[in-house]
TrEMBL record, chains A, B:
<dbReference type="GO" id="GO:0003677">
    <property type="term" value="F:DNA binding"/>
</dbReference>
<dbReference type="InterPro" id="IPR036271">
    <property type="entry name" value="Tet_transcr_reg_TetR-rel_C_sf"/>
</dbReference>
<keyword id="KW-0805">Transcription regulation</keyword>
<dbReference type="InterPro" id="IPR009057">
    <property type="entry name" value="Homeodomain-like_sf"/>
</dbReference>
<feature type="DNA-binding region" description="H-T-H motif">
    <location>
        <begin position="33"/>
        <end position="52"/>
    </location>
</feature>
<dbReference type="Pfam" id="PF00440">
    <property type="entry name" value="TetR_N"/>
</dbReference>
<feature type="domain" description="HTH tetR-type">
    <location>
        <begin position="10"/>
        <end position="70"/>
    </location>
</feature>
<keyword id="KW-0238">DNA-binding</keyword>
<protein>
    <submittedName>
        <fullName>HTH-type transcriptional repressor AcnR</fullName>
    </submittedName>
</protein>
<keyword id="KW-0804">Transcription</keyword>
<dbReference type="InterPro" id="IPR001647">
    <property type="entry name" value="HTH_TetR"/>
</dbReference>
Length: 210, 210
């Protein structure tokens, strides 16, 4: 057999992760049997478990990858920016199905719980860094505890994801997000309520700065 | 066999529903096998399916009962009042596990989808009636679309339930709820931010009025 380069290996790993992810979303952890994983990835069980020790390890890797992606987005766009992005990209709505599966699994998989909590911490750090910067620059209210600000943003993220998951996308979601944003903005930074450009261009949404 | 009175029947039905609910929460719909349902309810399959045609019917009845309870609470306490109540009663945190199961099941059970959508509509009507009253009495901002107000409250409810489900109860949740409440209150009704009594006594939380 020819030698396999590092980048080929990493690509195969990523292919397996992507296909296995859809399989876990479609069937749940228990329902994603090895045969279904083989079918979804187009690889034999031998090939799959060459890259990932077992199904538990594979699931943990899938969960970790989703959290990394979410943290990258929160870091570059801010939390409200991340939420608006999820609204605009319906493909991302299935994050929630995976999330529900993770929440179920952390009750019985201690390693998953540990890695998920570490990932949550990283997401929180990314969000904290961004919010701190925006408080210092006067765009966000400083009379609200930073932790409370983060808590409100996390509630909103999870509420939106859960809505998308049950197909309840409403025309009023963006306006509800505006309200959350306005409640966190410094009064000096508050523009006309009708001026949606102001709302999306300032405060938490700031994708261009990255 | 002695005759069974109507109220006995209704009580037995309620007992089965309560026990089956915990079984669905613990094992998920698929994992709640007939043997597990027998064990959970302490009744034979014959007795269970005397009251409910089959497992699907039983699950729909369990889902409907939870939504009725939620609508009653939203009607008497308002949506923020309902959310605070859920925070104070950790027993209710398992609502979310059932909700996740419902969301999964409505994809394959059309009757469940129909009844769940009707229940959601009833909840929304209860919330709308209360909010309309509070807008008219000047306690809530009228410059926000009513639908947007409801959307924000629904997002918040689902975010909180999802947080509780993954054991992430934080000390900052009540303060985050205050922020949501403040963002909806009429400026005339806004008190001192440090005055938490003002925050919980006015606006949406109004349990005493029922």
């Amino acid at each position: 057999m020819p030698k396999v380069s590092e980048s080929d290996l990493s690509e195969r790993r990523a292919d397996i992760l992507g296909a296995a992810r859809l399989c876990f979303i479609a069937y749940g952890y228990d329902g994603a049997t090895v045969s279904r994983l083989e079918k979804a990835t187009g690889k034999s069980r031998g090939a799959i478990f060459h890259h990932f020790r077992n199904k538990e390890t594979l699931f943990r890797a899938v969960a970790h990858r989703d959290m990394l992606r979410m943290t990258e987005l929160a870091s570059s766009r801010g939390m409200i920016g991340l939420i608006r992005y999820i609204l605009e990209e319906p493909d991302l709505a299935d994050w929630w199905s995976l999330r529900v599966e993770i929440t179920r699994r952390i009750r019985s998989d201690a390693l998953l719980r540990t890695s998920w909590e570490a990932d949550q911490k990283a997401l929180r750090q990314a969000v904290t860094a961004r919010l701190t910067e925006q408080r210092e620059s006067g765009r966000l209210r400083q009379d609200i505890d930073l932790e409370t600000t983060i808590q409100l943003l996390e509630l909103t993220l999870e509420g939106v994801m859960s809505h998308l998951d049950s197909d309840r996308v409403s025309d009023h979601l963006p306006a509800a997000l505006d309200l959350v944003e306005q409640s966190l903005r410094s009064p000096d930074a508050v523009g006309d309520f009708d001026d949606t450009v102001t709302v999306t261009d300032t405060a938490l949404v700031d994708a261009d700065r990255q």
